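Recall that a protein's primary structure is simply its ordered list of amino acids. Everything else, from secondary elements to tertiary packing, is in principle encoded there. The following example makes that idea concrete.
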Amino acid sequence: TQSTWDRKGVDLLREIIPEVCRTHKNVDFLIAGSGNKSIDIEEMRENHMLHDRVELLGAVPHHRVRDVLCRGHIFLNCSLTEAFCMAIAEAATVGLLVVTTNVGGIPEVLPSNMVVLRPPTAEELIEGIGVAIQRVRQVNPMDFHEQMRDCYSWREIAERTETVYKLIEKSAPHSLLYRLFRFYDIGPVSGKLFCTVFIVDYLLWCLLCFIFPSSAIDLAEEFPRTEWYETKAPTQRTTIS
């Protein structure tokens, strides 16, 4: 969507590429992905005559992402908002030095030796790329891979997520009156607005419960977790790769 491309910082990329190509003659760009702003990148390449420096791959199937990443030395992320950027974790896992904006949760994703963090402006990111170019020849991709292998595990993520759900399941639900007071205390105007929305949602929920009673909903069977771990669980640690 348009908003997705906007928050990925494509407009920043349009400013960054010509300047980096001008100041660093030995740097080329490899761009994967497609969307409604691809035409802007193509126009930038055309206007600055960078056909031999900027390669546009378009949409890349998931199973080929690693092969594309392995062609590079530095990974540039221009996101303007991000909770957790999986792309930079994948890039570091294959040995790329990452240059990225320092927005959202990005500063917490990678160790400092793997990343150059900069504010989300073209000037700052251009300066960060210059720093990365000086550092990249000292990077050992296998060292990055080994370090990332110990940082993240899908099994650990799943176990922590399950722990959170169990804690929520054990906690006592708050009463309707308590929730209304919490909403009311938000502010003199917004508090009343939130209370109104909450009451409307609650009445709608009561109506849906009457039309579709919970007794008519099929219950999900409990997953045989113990048997699965004994017979089918992999013994090898699962990591991002």
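Residues 236-241 have pLDDT under 50 and may be disordered. The two ends are 28 Å apart (CA to CA).
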